[in-house]
Design a protein that fits this description.
Layout (H helix, E strand, L loop, with lengths): L36 E8 L6 H17 L3 E2 L2 E9 L1 E2 L4 E2 L1 H13 L3 E6 L3 H12 L7 E4 L27 E3 L4 H14 L5 E6 L3 H16 L3 E7 L8 H8 L5 E5 L6 H12 L6 E4 L7 H4 L8 E4 L4 H7 L1 H14 L8 H17 L4 H9 L5 E2 L10 E2 L13 E6 L2 E7 L4
Parallel strand pairs: 1-3, 1-6, 6-7, 7-8, 9-10, 9-11, 11-12, 12-13
Antiparallel strand pairs: 2-3, 4-5, 13-16, 14-15, 16-17
Helix pairs in contact: 1-10, 1-11, 2-3, 4-5, 6-7, 9-10, 11-12
Length: about 425
C-alpha cells in the first residue's frame, strides 16, 4: 500500500505559495525571540478529488492571516503548505503522510501543524509530532472526525497517538460517533426509513462513521442489511448493488470519502437500485465539498451530514464568519468550495492564540493548549461564530454542531441542524 513518498514543501497550485515560507531546516524547534518568524505547517491533499476543498481552506487561512497582520502576539507567522497526496493515487497517501511528519519535525521554525483533512493521515502524523523531543508539537485539525484520535474507540485509542504521554493533538470539529448517529436518527425520524444497507471504504474514517451509523440505526429500529466494504479499485459496482437489491433496501449509507471511487459507486447505485427518491442515499461529510460529486446527475437528492455548520448558515449568522466569507468572495469570486474552509481558519485561530501565549518554542505552543488556562476563542472573534474551547484533557472541542444537507440542483443546500444527543 505504501508508495514512494513525495513531499511538496510549497503548494502546487498557483497562488498558494505566496504566504508559505521557503526552505526546510534540519533539527527540531529552537528558542525564538521577539520579532522572529514562526511557521505553521498546513498539511492537506492538494491533488485529486480533494484539491478544490484544500485550495479553498488554504486560501481562507491566508486571507485571515493577512487580516490579522500576519502576527500572533509578538511573533510573525507564516504558513508552509505540505501536500499529503500523490498524483498517482489522487488522494492522501500513507507514505507521503509519513514523510511529511518527519519534515514537519525537521523544519526548525515550524511550531505547529494545521491539518490533516483525512483521519487516516492524522493517525500517521500525530504520533510523530507528539514524540518530537523538542515538543510535543501541536497539531490542530479542522476536519478529522475519527473518534479514536482523542477518545477510546478502537484498541489502543487514543493513547497510541501520544507516545510522549502528553496530548498534543486537538480538533475544532465534532466526531463521527455524533455524526454517524445523527445520520441514522435523521434516516429514521425524518425520512421514516426501515431497511438500510451500509457500505464503507475500508479506511479509518469510513469504518468509524459507518459503525456509528449502524449502531444508532439499530437503536432507531432500522434493519441494517449489512455493513460491507467496497473495493475502491473496482471499475464498477453493478454486481455489488445487484446483490444488495434482493435485500430490498430503502436506504444506502456510504461511509467513506468520495476520493475512493465514490463517483462510480453512486452511478451504479442509481443504475441498479434506482434514483435517490426511490432508495435514499445518505452520506457523511466525506462526500461534501466535491464539485465532481455535486455535479453528478445520479447524486441529485442525496442527503449529507456535515460535522459542523455549513457556509450558508455561517454567512446568515453574521459576525466574523460572514465578514470573512464576504472578503473571500470578493477576492476569489465565489464562496469556498468546502464547508471546512472556515473550520481551517478556526483551527488556525487556536494555533495563533497558542503562539501568542508561548515563548516561541514548540513545547510552549503545545502547553498553551493543554496546560494552564488553555485556549478559548470568544464568539465575537470565532471564525465559526461560537465560543470555541479546546479540552485540555482530550483535545476535543466544546461545540458539537451537526448539519444535514441535501444535494439539490447541483448545490449542497442546508436542510436543518441535527441536535447531538
Amino acid at each position: 500500500m505504501f508508495k514512494s513518498a513525495k513531499f511538496v514543501a510549497m503548494a502546487v497550485v498557483a497562488g498558494l505559495a505566496a504566504s508559505a515560507c521557503s526552505g526546510s531546516a534540519s533539527g527540531g524547534a529552537e528558542e525564538s525571540s521577539s520579532g522572529d518568524t514562526l511557521v505553521v505547517g498546513v498539511d492537506l491533499p492538494l491533488q485529486g478529488a480533494s484539491k478544490d476543498a484544500s485550495e479553498a481552506t488554504v486560501n481562507a487561512m491566508k486571507l485571515y492571516l493577512d487580516q490579522v497582520g500576519g502576527k500572533a502576539g509578538k511573533y510573525k507567522v507564516q504558513l508552509k503548505v505540505y501536500d499529503d497526496s500523490t498524483a498517482a493515487k489522487g488522494a492522501w497517501d500513507d507514505a507521503t503522510c509519513a514523510k511529511n511528519a518527519q519534515d514537519h519535525v525537521a523544519n526548525a521554525k515550524e511550531v505547529a501543524v494545521m491539518g490533516t483533512y483525512n483521519s487516516g493521515c492524522a493517525q500517521i502524523i500525530a504520533p510523530v509530532l507528539n514524540a518530537d523531543p523538542k515538543g510535543p508539537m501541536l497539531m490542530v485539525s479542522h476536519a478529522n472526525t475519527y473518534p479514536g484520535l482523542t477518545k477510546s474507540w478502537d484498541p489502543g485509542d487514543p493513547e497510541k497517538y501520544s507516545p510522549s504521554g502528553k496530548r498534543s493533538y486537538a480538533r475544532v470539529i465534532a466526531t463521527d460517533d455524533y455524526q454517524g448517529a445523527a445520520g441514522a436518527q435523521f434516516a429514521a425520524k425524518d425520512l421514516g426509513l426501515k431497511r438500510c444497507m451500509v457500505l464503507n471504504d475500508n479506511q479509518t474514517y469510513g469504518k468509524g462513521v459507518s459503525k456509528a451509523f449502524e449502531d444508532e440505526a439499530k437503536k432507531q429500529g432500522i434493519t441494517v442489511l449489512g455493513n460491507q466494504a467496497w473495493d475502491v479499485k473496482q471499475p464498477n459496482y453493478a454486481a455489488l448493488f445487484t446483490s444488495i437489491k434482493s435485500k430490498k433496501p430503502d436506504c444506502v449509507y456510504l461511509g467513506g470519502i468520495f476520493d475512493n471511487n465514490g463517483g462510480q459507486l453512486v452511478k451504479d447505485k442509481v443504475k441498479v437500485l434506482g434514483d435517490n427518491d426511490k432508495v435514499k442515499l445518505i452520506t457523511p461529510d466525506g462526500f461534501t465539498g466535491y464539485p465532481e460529486f455535486d455535479g453528478l446527475a445520479q447524486a441529485e437528492g442525496t442527503y449529507l451530514t456535515f460535522a459542523g455548520l455549513s457556509t450558508e448558515v455561517l454567512r446568515e449568522e453574521g459576525g466574523t464568519a460572514a465578514k470573512l466569507l464576504d472578503a473571500y468572495k470578493k477576492k476569489y469570486g465565489e464562496d469556498p468550495a468546502t464547508n471546512y474552509a472556515l473550520y481551517g481558519v478556526e483551527a488556525l485561530q487556536v494555533i495563533l492564540a497558542a503562539i501568542e501565549k508561548s515563548d516561541g518554542t514548540r513545547k510552549s505552543v503545545r502547553d498553551a493548549v493543554f496546560e494552564g488556562e488553555g485556549i478559548t476563542i470568544p464568539a465575537a472573534e470565532s471564525a465559526v461564530g461560537k465560543e470555541i474551547t479546546i479540552s485540555k484533557e482530550t483535545g476535543d472541542v466544546n461545540v458539537l454542531d451537526i448539519s444535514v444537507l441535501e444535494l439539490k440542483g447541483k448545490t449542497e443546500t442546508y436542510l436543518k441542524p441535527w441536535p447531538v444527543s
